[in-house]
From TrEMBL:
InterPro entries: Ribosome_recyc_fac, Ribosome_recyc_fac_dom, RRF_sf. Belongs to the RRF family. One of its GO terms (biological process) is translational termination. Residues 126-172 form a coiled coil. It comes from Microbacterium testaceum. Responsible for the release of ribosomes from messenger RNA at the termination of protein biosynthesis. May increase the efficiency of translation by recycling ribosomes from one round of translation to another. The keyword Protein biosynthesis applies. GO terms for cellular component: cytoplasm. The keyword Cytoplasm applies. The gene is frr. It is found in: Cytoplasm. This is Ribosome-recycling factor. GO terms for molecular function: ribosomal large subunit binding.
Length: 184
């Protein structure tokens, strides 16, 4: 029973770390990256649809991204969704068949703003991991009557080690993203 609680907590924490890494990828650096557009939702016939389901994204140059919609009638909606996306700071252009997004050069102030955004996302991810730890601890406490005190203490130490490992993974990803953002 204890092993099940610990395994479940570890798996959930793994997913939280992966979600944090994906979230970090949505913050732009100096290069155009299709991952930055993962969270863009386009109003397609009244329902919010992820951009990746409506178009192919190509990266022909370092700072240019070409979006080729599968349905040409969605061109205006795609363009508007990209324009409305916060933290991108881009102005897409539409030539009737494709949407071209050119990333402007990042200023030092803008880079520092992005670092603050990424740190906030990192802190949110760490809070999520800690919440998962708290839930697992509550689940372990519920088992108090079924298992011995020593087993419970050992399990809590193991849970703390798993939590610390996952928080460290988030910190490492955060440091990599910060270095990537501040690189000129």
């Amino acid at each position: 029973m204890i092993a099940d609680v610990l395994a479940d907590a570890g798996a959930r924490m793994d997913r939280a770390v992966e979600a944090a890494k994906e979230d970090f990828a949505t913050v732009r650096t100096g290069r155009a990256n299709p991952q930055m557009f993962q969270k863009v939702l386009v109003d397609y016939y009244g329902s919010p649809t992820p951009l990746a389901q409506l178009a192919s994204l190509n990266n022909p140059e370092a700072r240019t991204l070409v979006i080729n919609p599968y349905d040409k009638s969605a061109l205006k909606a795609i363009e508007q969704a990209i324009r409305d996306m916060p933290n991108l700071g881009v102005n897409p252009t539409n030539d009737g068949t494709i949407v071209r997004v050119t990333m402007p050069e990042l200023t030092q102030d803008r880079r520092k703003e992005y670092v603050k955004i990424v740190r906030g996302k990192g802190e949110d991810a760490k809070v999520q991991v800690r919440n998962l730890r708290r839930k697992a601890k509550d689940d372990l406490d519920a088992l108090k009557s079924d298992v011995g005190e020593d087993e419970l203490v050992r399990a809590e130490k193991e849970l703390d080690a798993v939590t610390r490992t996952h928080v460290d993974l988030i910190d490492e990803a955060l440091k990599r993203k910060e270095a990537e953002l501040l690189e000129v």
